[in-house]
Amino acid sequence: MSKDLPKNSSKKLSSKPTLYQNRELSWLNFNERVLLEADDPAVPLLERLNFLGIFSNNMDEFYRVRVALLKRLVNLREDVVDLDFDPAKVLKEIHKRVVVQRHKADDIYEKISRELAKENIFFIDETELTEEQGQFVRQYFKETVRQFLFPIMLDRFRNFSNLHDNSIYLVIDLTHKDNPTAENLALIEIPTDHVSRFLVLPTGSDKKQYVMFLDDVIRYCLADIFSVFGFIRFKAYTIKFTRDAEFDLDNDVSKSFLEAVRDGIKQRKYGDTVRFVYDEELPRKVLTSILKKLGIKKRDSLEKGGRYHNSKDFMHFPRILGTKKMQYDSMPQIDVPDFPPGVSMLDVIRKKDVMLHYPYQPFRYMIELLREASIDPAVRTIKMTIYRAAKHSAVVNALINAARNGKEVIVFVEFQARFDEAANISWAARMQDEGIRVLPSIPGMKVHCKILLIRRKEFNVNVYYTAIGSGNPNENTTRIYCDEHLLTADKEITSEVNKVFHLLDDQKYQLPDFKHIIVSPFGTRKFFLKQIDREIKNARKGKPAWMIVKMNNLVDKRIVNRLYEASEAGVKIDMIIRGICTLVPGVPGVSEQIRAVRIVDRFLEHSRVLVFCNDDKPEYFIGSADWMERNLDHRFEVVTPVRDPAIQKQLWDILQIQLQDNVKARLISLEQPNERITVKKGNKKIQAQIEIYRYLQQRKNDPEIPNASTQSKPLPSETPVPYPQN
Questions:
Q1: How far is the C-alpha of 673 from the C-alpha of 668, rounded, in Å?
Q2: pLDDT band at residue 255 using 50, 70 and 90 as cut-offs
Q3: Is 105 exposed, middle or buried (0-12, 13-18, 19+ CB in 10 A)?
Q4: Burial classification of residue 694, based on how many CB atoms lie within 10 Å of its CB (0-12 exposed, 13-18 middle, 19 or more buried)
Q5: What is d(CA 212, CA 168) in angstroms, rounded to the nearest whole number?
Q6: So where are the chain's domains?
Q7: Helices 87-118, 45-62: crossing angle, 10 deg rounding
Q8: Helix-then-strand count for the chain, H and E
């Protein structure tokens, strides 16, 4: 029995394994919540298509990483790995749930299509074209599409690794005029990397707008490709396969770590197939031939699908269609009142801390801070960590500009950021060419912290400025991810951020004693267990005791057990967990004091914010670490205290708005993982992201105006917010 189990619950926990939701099944609950947005009639139509795309994209990555890992575990002998779950059973349950979700997604697509038809927008296939439309499609195919098509005749096909993971292919069943009974099969990759998945046809006199999938454009023009070879009939069916995307780093000592990562990226094209999705109309004989030719065994995840795969392309559906009411209302980003035009950002930060709230406020302030630092003659050094950079990164360009201006620029680029390895290697090479010192990645230890440090010489004294965030400094993601960035010149915090960079720069550097910031893998777990223990002690002494926890994922079992113990002691716990939550709230006698919600809306909730009551002297923290074993023990993460009372109030107000959300929030539980919150008659509907936007607008106009729907600070002996009655 784990020593971290609640003291009064050892029997309960050992006899009730359902107190720990399996992490993969919990993730499927999150993705189902995304699907619910696609099914919500209150969401504008084109945004519902976008959520279908997000759902599909999420599922692809889930299979490439998590399902692939489970399949690896199944193949290991039991004595090789010690698990507290049966991976084979979990895989079976995943398949069962995914089939249900996929059918639901197909039904939602049909529903959205009918709604779009009411708005005079129609999806049509190759069988429904008029003669005039057919001429347009053939011309488009000839001028735009054909150059990217390279058919593969399967009777001559030898190398499965040449096929692209997660692309969609048309299997063409061909009939030759000289031998009509012979089997002739070809593959054509649908070139969505080069051509839009959707073709908008010219609007006719009926004022209706017609859209075709690129798949159907190719179907319509198959004769243009194959008739020259004597084929007279063509039937096309869609297939898609997903490979294991994890790679094992080569331990060859003659290779550098960079070479090992590059070789690992190449390994992905040889990864085992973890899912094969095919058109349910595909004849069994053709399916058997395809599977045999591609070396896909029956035990792999075979899924019947519809005519179209890769719904993730709906994320790029043409926005020229429809009207404004079919998209979200515009939410222009809000200027930060702490940084008026014409004022030095460094001067402002020296005098007071500033918090940036993305995406409500623009990321450009971070770019402007780097630009100012690159020009300021008193700035000597800029240090930064980069986990995921934007495709055309203004951050990297600002760092290059600083190096050109004679600044010492030191950047840690994480080569192990999944699916961004190649891009990060490329960025690192470019920065090195420009004179930036790029720190080497650490094998087996990802650097996930989001930190920036600027050293400025002021009156012959080094003054440090730092930015610590919960999300990547990325101008693309900060437009859709809800994150926080603290800008501070606090000497205690900046000096310790500098120590983190010394550690990254010299991995033999003596481990510093971090007293102010919390750094994984050295002390994050211990620190937060102590924070929870303090609340438990206070609750048992009859003192106020509560905590608010907002993060992406809650998985770590030791922390979950300690939260159960806190609940039993009477600590009120409010949780906002977007993704995986293995903790089960509301279990009698174990987690009755815990309430957990999941918010999914137009922006992705990504911030990590924690508040602990501390006997009515609340302590606030933000940072990059979720409560998962990997973040606590196997990554570099930085969590910082937030000390400024004005910023504490901002965080408090925003958390209160989120905890009162009764529109987009769903209760997390085992039986009903996405249960709606009942709005009592006469109560106001609160949609957190809309209210937070209004709140920050209000603060911009007058920082002293409190938000009417929040308390300005915790009240003694009261919980942070009253629990909504359901």
A1: 5
A2: very low
A3: buried
A4: middle
A5: 16
A6: 23-119, 128-312, 345-516, 519-701
A7: 160
A8: 20, 27
Q: Which helix (H) or strand (E) holds 689?
A: helix 688-701
Neighbour count for residue 34 (Cβ, 10 Å): 21
pTM equals 0.90
Provide the residue count of the chain: 726
| Sheet arrangement for strand 209-213 | 121-123, 209-213, 198-200
Beta strands in 139-191 (DSSP E): 152-153, 168-176, 184-189
The answer to whether 277 and 240 have CB atoms below 8 angstroms apart is yes
What letter represents residue 540's amino acid? R
For residues 360 and 386, the answer to whether their CB atoms sit within 8 Å is no
Check if the beta carbon of residue 265 is closer than 8 Å to that of residue 247.
Answer: yes
Question: Which is it for strands 437-439 and 408-413: parallel, antiparallel or unpaired?
Answer: parallel
pLDDT in tens, 587-619: 999 999 999 999 999 999 999 999 999 999 999
Q: What is the pLDDT of residues 308-347, one digit of tens each?
A: 988 999 999 998 888 889 999 999 999 999 999 999 999 9
Which positions are catalytic? 448
pLDDT score of 412: 94
The reply to whether 519-701 shares the fold of 345-516 is yes
Distance of alpha carbon 329 from its chain centroid, rounded?
23
In the CATH scheme, what architecture does the domain 519-701 have? 2-Layer Sandwich (3.30)
- Distance separating alpha carbons of residues 288 and 305, to the nearest angstrom: 16
Burial class (CB in 10 A: 0-12, 13-18, 19+), 300: middle
Peptide bond preceding 359 in cis form (omega within 30 of 0): yes
How many C-beta atoms lie closer than 10 Å to residue 426's C-beta? 12
Element (H, E) at 288: helix 284-294
d(CA 525, CA 249): 27
Instruction: Let me know: does 389 contact 363? Beta carbons within 8 Å.
Output: no
Residue with tokens 């004179």: 435
Q: What is the CATH number of domain 23-119?
A: 1.20.58.310
Phi, psi for residue 550 in degrees, rounded to 5: -125, 125
The DSSP secondary-structure symbol of 144 reads I
- Cis peptide upstream of residue 440 (ω within 30 degrees of 0): no
Q: What is the DSSP letter of 328?
A: P
Please say whether the beta carbons of 137 and 67 come within 8 A: no
Instruction: Label residue 726 by pLDDT band (50, 70, 90).
Output: very low
Residue 337: asked if its preceding bond is cis (omega within 30°), the reply is: no
Nearest to 389 by CA among 433, 438, 332: 438
Both tokens assigned to 475 = 């101008």
User: Can you name the residues that pair with 484 across neighbouring β-strands?
Assistant: 357
The Cβ of residue 483 has, within 10 Å, a number of other Cβ atoms equal to: 27
Q: Which two tokens stand for residue 392?
A: 């055309």
Q: In whole angstroms, give the CA distance from residue 126 to residue 130.
A: 10
The CATH code for residues 128-312 is: 3.30.1840.10
Neighbour-count burial for 190-214, b at 16+ CB within 10 Å, e otherwise:
bbbeebebbbebeeeeeeebbbbbb
Closest CA to 149 of 100, 85, 201, 192: 192
Q: Which amino acid is at 261?
A: V
Per the listing, tokens 């319509």 go with: 220
Instruction: Please give the single-letter amino acid code of residue 100.
Output: V
Helix axis angle, 257-267 relative to 421-433, nearest 10°? 140
Question: What is the CATH T-level fold of the domain 345-516, as seen in this structure?
Answer: Endonuclease; Chain A (3.30.870)
* CA-based nearest residue to 666, from 21, 30, 18, 62: 30
